[in-house]
Structures are given as C-alpha cells and as structure tokens.
C-alpha cells in the first residue's frame, strides 16, 4: 500500500509539470502561428536592443526625450520600434513617414492608447484622449463648429480684452510673468467657453488653475503605473503608492470643473450673462438634435467644454513662455519687430487683429516660436487600430505611434540652422515665403486628430506677441548687482512641454507705451 501511494504521488508530481509544460508549448506555438499569419513574414521596424519583457524602459525616461528619439532615427531609420513593458511603441522621425501613416492612412492610425494615467487623473473626460469611433466623432463635431475660421472671429474682442489685462498685470508686477501668462489665456478661454467673466476673487479661479496642473501626470516616466497598469489597484495606504494621492487630487479637480462650470453657465443664461458662450449655444442646441440621448448630450457638452479649456489654456500658455525666452536671447529680433510695429501701428494705439496682413515680421516670429519650441514634441500619441504593412515592415494593431514633431521642426534640410531663432527664414522680399514649410502642420497634430482649435490659438498668440512687443522691452534678468544673467533654453520633459527658465526683465518702452497700457 505504501509503495502504491508513493508511486501515485510521484506520478502526480510528474504529470502536473508535464501538463503545464505541454500547455505552455502549445500556447507558444499557437501564438507563433497566429503571428506568422498576421505579419506574413514581414519584420517589425528596426530598433535598439532591449531587455526581454522589460524592453526599453530606461530609454523612455531620458531628459528631452525627443532629442534621444531623433538620435535613434538617425541610427535606425525614419521608423524605429521601441517596446516598453509589453507595449509596442513606434517612433516616426521624418515628415514623409508621418504624412504617409498619420495623414494618408489616418483611418487606421487615429486611435488613442487608453492608459491607466488617463483614467486615474480624470482625463477620460477629455475627448482628445478618446478612442477613434462614433463617440469621439460626436464630440469632435460639437467642438469643431465653434472653432472654424469664421466662427473664431467672434472671439477676437475677448482675446484682445484678455491681452490688455495681461499688459496691465505685467506693468504692475513683471516678476510674476508665468502667473500672468496663464491668467491671460485662462480668462480668455473661460469667457469663450463658459461665458463667465473672471475676477480674482471668484471661488472657481483656484479650481480652474489647478486643473491645468494635471499635465504633470503625463510627464514621461514619472509614474510607474504608466507602464504597469495593474498598480492602479494598489490602495493609497500601501507604502510606495503615494501616486494614488496625486491622481485622486487631479481627478477630483477635473470632475469639479467638468460638472460645476457648465452649471454656472446654465445659471448665467437666465439673465443673459453667458448666452454667447460655446456652452450656452450647445445647451440651446440640445433640444434641437435627436442623434443621442439627453444624458449623452449633457456629457458631450461637459466634455467638450473641459477639452476646450484644458487644450486652449495650457498649450498657448507654454508657447507664450517660449516667446519671452526667445526675445531675451535674441534682442535683434525684438528690435526688428518693434520697428515694424512702430511703422505700421504707430505710437497712438495698440495693434489689432486686422493689422496682421501688414505685420509679416510679427507673423514670422509667431511661426518661429511654434517651430523653435514646439509645446507638443510628440503631438498626442496615436495608436494603430489594425495591422499595417508599410515600406516592407509589419506594424501590428495596438502599436503606439510617437511622431517626433520636434525632430521635423529641427530638420536642417527644411530649416537651416534649426537651433537658431530666426524669423527671417519665413520671409522673402519682406513678405511671408509660401515655399517654406509651415510649422503649423507639425505643431497642431496630424490626420483626423489635428487640433480643431488651431485658428483660435493662432489669433490669440498673434495679438499677445504684437501687443507685448509694441509696449514692452524684454531683456535678460539681473542679479543683485544689476548685471545681466545669461539664461539657457531647456524644455521640460512633459507631454505639454515649456521652457524651464523664463526669467527676464520687462519694462515699458516709453512713457507713451505706459499710457497705452493703462488706457
């Protein structure tokens, strides 16, 4: 009996591992057969060697990662495959492949990765993060109708008033430059989207400010949960799970803004205070359309408003920061711009939007800021929804695509001496040169995911650049002895990037300029 029992025990110990081994081999062979059938013998794009299962995690955490990605493309080609913890990632390094894949084949390259960070931070309400499909299209249509070129003209007076307030704040306290920049775009976008005129003592101001900080969540490599989604289930009290507190704060603020700001608009519609806003118009349209349920329409309105605010305020804020750094580092550019403004606008008024055709150098500065320091170095990453064959390579469905916009905008073949801030590259015979590639094609996204708020952003940036240069001199910061401090241009390693050092000295150009600011 003991012998039989021992034999049975040995048999079980042998059989179980054998079954596990057999099942593993079967699943592996089945996966290989499926993969071979899908790729039809085509290879994945080339890329650096990686650690099995871990991939190229260390590479994705490098500072100014867009520069590291350009180096990879210089070594391996315009398409580079970089897996990270099981996620297939593909870097696109040239305008040609970006156009081929994201524009010409946008029907299968317009998806978005549904990461844990998006859900944890509350950004699953931002429709720019939605998967490509019917729900995204409904949001896009609601958004787009209010930001077409003709529609954007309705907002010019709001932008002008916000910029005037910005000039006054700069005059009163230039040391708070970044705070004032964020203010000018926040107040303008809040007025356009929600119809609410902002005052410093309004209770919602702090919440509207905090929601813009959610961009910190998307700093590449900052949170391990970005690469290990299962970590989202770890309770906040567990040691090492402090990220849960960060995300809870962002999620609460995002939800507050999403829900409460629309209700404030609805309340203001009763007495006509907010009737011209985008939210008010969408609410009025709600009863006229039957494409979706009332509950869905309410969600669409809240999500569109949140997306318009976050996208409009944060990206233009970052771009204007880059403008101030560019002026500190390039005083000759500043002098040329001011000479053009003096000749066209004169000293008795501030620039207007309709001065744009007569201010080609100002417009060239605007274009050069977009090129020199793109605030979205990788745009917003795309994802393939189907298997793709391109240039002899196999690109599987579910591959994350990172178009290196920064590399395209710093390509010396297209833009000679790309590290120099040189608005003249866009001019010929005193006019804009149409033969020079427009940075906007890389700065505002690609294909079906191109930014629908581009025209609004362009108008806002133009009037800010023109007004600031018309009345202020922007010079290097000073130390305690009054000597100039040399600053350097370094961009923050974030999804929405911005210059890290924006110190400068801001003074009125003249007493007449001071009067214009205060008028």
TrEMBL record:
Family matches, as Gene3D superfamilies: Cytochrome P450
Principal subcellular localisation of the protein: membrane
This protein's UniProt keywords: Heme, Iron, Membrane, Metal-binding, Monooxygenase, Oxidoreductase, Transmembrane, Transmembrane helix
GO MF annotation: an example: iron ion binding
Organism per entry: Lentinus tigrinus ALCF2SS1-6
Chain positions recorded as heme binding sites: 451
Cofactor field: heme
Family note: Belongs to the cytochrome P450 family.
Localisation per UniProt entry: Membrane
Pathway per the UniProt entry: Secondary metabolite biosynthesis
InterPro entries referenced in this protein's UniProt entry, alphabetically: Cyt_P450, Cyt_P450_CS, Cyt_P450_E_grp-I, Cyt_P450_sf, Cytochrome_P450_fung
Membrane-related topology note: Single-pass membrane protein
Record-given protein name: CyP450 monooxygenase
One term under GO cellular component: membrane
């Amino acid at each position: 009996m003991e012998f039989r029992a021992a034999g049975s025990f040995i048999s079980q110990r042998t059989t179980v591992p054998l079954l596990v081994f057999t099942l593993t081999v079967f699943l592996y062979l089945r996966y290989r057969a499926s993969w071979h059938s899908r790729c039809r013998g085509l290879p994945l794009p080339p890329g650096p060697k990686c650690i099995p299962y871990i991939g190229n995690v260390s590479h994705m955490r490098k500072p100014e990662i867009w520069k590291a990605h350009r180096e990879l493309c210089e070594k391996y080609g315009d398409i580079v495959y970089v897996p990270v913890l099981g996620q297939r990632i593909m870097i696109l390094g040239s305008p040609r492949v970006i156009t081929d894949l994201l524009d010409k084949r946008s029907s299968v390259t317009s998806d978005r990765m549904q990461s844990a960070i998006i859900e944890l931070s509350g950004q699953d309400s931002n429709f720019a993060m939605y998967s490509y499909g019917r729900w995204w299209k409904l949001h896009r249509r609601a958004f787009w109708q209010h930001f077409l070129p003709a529609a954007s003209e309705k907002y010019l007076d709001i932008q002008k008033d916000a910029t005037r307030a910005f000039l006054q704040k700069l005059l009163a306290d230039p040391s708070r430059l970044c705070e004032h920049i964020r203010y000018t775009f926040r107040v303008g976008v809040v007025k356009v989207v929600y119809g609410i005129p902002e005052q410093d003592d309004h209770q919602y101001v702090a919440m509207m400010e905090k929601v813009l900080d959610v961009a910190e969540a998307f700093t590449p490599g900052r949170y391990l949960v970005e690469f290990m989604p299962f970590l989202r289930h770890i309770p906040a009290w567990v040691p090492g799970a402090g990220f849960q507190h960060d995300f809870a704060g962002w999620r609460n603020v995002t939800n507050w803004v999403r829900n409460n700001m629309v209700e404030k608009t609805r309340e203001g519609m009763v007495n006509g205070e907010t009737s011209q806003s985008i939210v008010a118009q969408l609410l009025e349209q709600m009863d006229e359309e039957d494409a979706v349920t009332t509950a869905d329409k309410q969600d669409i309105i809240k999500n569109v408003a949140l997306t318009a605010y976050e996208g409009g305020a944060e990206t233009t804020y970052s771009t204007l920061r880059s403008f101030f750094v560019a002026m500190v580092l390039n005083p000759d550019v500043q002098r040329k711009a001011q000479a053009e403004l003096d000749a066209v606008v004169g000293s008795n008024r501030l620039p207007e939007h309709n001065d744009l055709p007569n201010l080609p150098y100002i417009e060239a500065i605007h274009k050069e800021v977009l090129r020199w320091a793109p605030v979205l170095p990788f745009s917003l990453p795309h994802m393939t929804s189907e298997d793709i064959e391109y240039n002899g390579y196999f690109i599987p469905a579910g591959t994350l695509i990172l178009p290196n916009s920064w590399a395209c905008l710093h390509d010396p073949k297209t833009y000679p001496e790309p590290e120099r801030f040189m608005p003249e590259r866009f001019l010929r015979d005193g006019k804009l040169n149409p033969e020079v590639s427009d940075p906007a094609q890389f700065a505002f996204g690609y294909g079906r995911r191109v930014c629908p708020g581009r025209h609004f952003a362009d108008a806002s940036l133009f009037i800010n650049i023109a007004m600031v240069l018309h009345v202020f001199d922007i010079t290097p910061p000073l130390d305690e002895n009054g000597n100039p401090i040399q600053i350097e241009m370094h961009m923050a390693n974030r999804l929405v990037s911005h210059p890290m050092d924006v110190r400068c000295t801001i003074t009125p150009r003249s007493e007449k300029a001071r009067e214009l600011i205060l008028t």
